[in-house]
Amino acid sequence: MKARTKRATVSAVFVVALIISVALAYAKSSSYAPVVITEDFQSVMKRMTAAKPEIMKRQMDLLHERYDLSDNPARGVTMSRGKPVQQGVRAKLPHGMTWQKLAEMTPDEIRTRGLFPKGFMPLPHPNHREGGMVFPQFVIDEIKKLEGRDLTRFDLDFDLPDHFLPEFPAAIYLTTRPDLGDVSQGKVVTINNYYELFNGLLNPKQLEGLRLLVTPFPQQQFNQTEDRRSEKPSRGVTCFDCHSNGHTAAPTHLVGDIRPQQFRHRLDTPPLRGVNIQRLFGSQRALKTIEDFTEFEQRAAYFDGDPVIATKKGVNILERGSQVHFMAEFQALLDFPPALKLDIFGRLDPDRATKAELRGQDVFFTKAKCAACHTPPYYTDNLMHNLKTERFYEPQMINGRYASADGPIKNFPLRGIKDSPPYLHDGRLLTLEDTVEFFNLILETKLTEQEKKDLVEFLRAL
């Protein structure tokens, strides 16, 4: 009894100390980034380059602690252009626990006993204290080859293994020309080839919008000032560096609308496919139009939501009536990949679907409660939802990220979902199996093992 009381006291003291440290950090923090850099650039680069190995080791240790990162593709399941889809639950369970046993417990029990899987906790940025855009190496290599523009950061690397990321280059489907199928020709669309690929397929406004989407503009980490994270002065980044081919290559960033730094959420870049049917943009900003989102990104999100720094580094002020409109008009053409097993209402055609997919569809619309938010035909309700995941764990610091609450998150469409791993707004769920286990726990639906397998089969068919 005394030992239990002592452990509880130590735990309480730890929580209080953590809260105090966060409060102190908040009290000392500023809404603004430093404008005048007093340390010379070469010194900054030398210092950050030297610190990089330890920073990346800390992040990779966290990932290995949380997940099974092995390459284990599902047999016969691929993305639109053939990249294998990873299978299996990758989040690791606490010692001696099973998913079924965990699902039988209440949120209070899971929180009190510290049993919430670490892979379901908020995922920090590779270096959360620093933040900023970080690109997978395959994106860096291709852009450098095609444009001579280098997206390498001297201070850190992307963290998730390539096999958990979307295929690259991604297929491009147009709502205006579904007869053409994938119009990418297997190429990454850049400023050097957009005209030859799309002249004759788009009208002049759409073509100009695409040109702007593949034009580099200054950004927080990639610019011409001494306050950058590229070795040489950089022309910047393009919209399509993150939203590759109008889809996503899953680069990461931090949301710009939360302060102080430790409360900012990691951002997994979502696809632009299907924005024509969406009415909310930004995972948490609830911007109401694609025009709002396009303008906001380059004015604010490119610079961590800091207009003072944006002015210093060369913000690109888009003209709303023409440039923003043109960019939005092209984005509205980006379609979901074909789903040959779905009818016009977004339901499975019984003559084309497998028995497992049909069973999964039934689970989706009944016991799993998925359809409460993800309504067909595009499987979104265009609303924000708060999952209140914090019911399952105590607030804690994770590699510089203070995990306390996610808040309301945009409900993204599920059409074409197998093409856009990882999942959830911060990419903490590596596979669809992880996603099903996560929501089975969060929604307390108590699905059987067979129901979970069938649900994954249905999601792959969307």
Q: What can you see in these coordinates?
A:
It is a single chain. Helix content is 34%, strand content 5%. The strands form four sheets. It has a two-stranded antiparallel ribbon with strand order 1-2. Strands 3-4 form a two-stranded antiparallel sheet. Strands 5-8 form a two-stranded antiparallel ribbon. The chain has 14 helices and eight strands. The chain has a single domain, classed as Cytochrome c-like domain (Cytochrome Bc1 Complex, Chain D, domain 2, Orthogonal Bundle). The protein is mainly alpha-helical and 462 residues long. Helix 7 packs across helix 11 and helix 13 packs across helix 14. 42% of the residues are buried. Strand 1 and strand 2 form a beta hairpin. It is globular.
The CATH superfamily is identified as Cytochrome c-like domain
Task: Report the end-to-end length measured between terminal Cα atoms.
Answer: 54 Å
In which order are the strands of the major sheet placed?
1-2
Number of strands: 8
**CATH topology value:** Cytochrome Bc1 Complex, Chain D, domain 2
| Dominant shape | globular
As residue ranges, the low-confidence spans are: 1-27
Radius of gyration using CA atoms only = 22 Å
Count of helical stretches: 14
Reported for the largest beta sheet, the result is: 2 strands, antiparallel
> What is the count of distinct domains?
1
Q: Determine and state the CATH class.
A: Mainly Alpha
CATH architecture annotation = Orthogonal Bundle
Question: Beta fraction of the residues?
Answer: 5-15%
Structural class: mainly alpha
Q: What pattern of helices and strands is seen along the backbone?
A: HHEEHHHHHHEEHHHHEEEEHH
* Average pLDDT score: 93
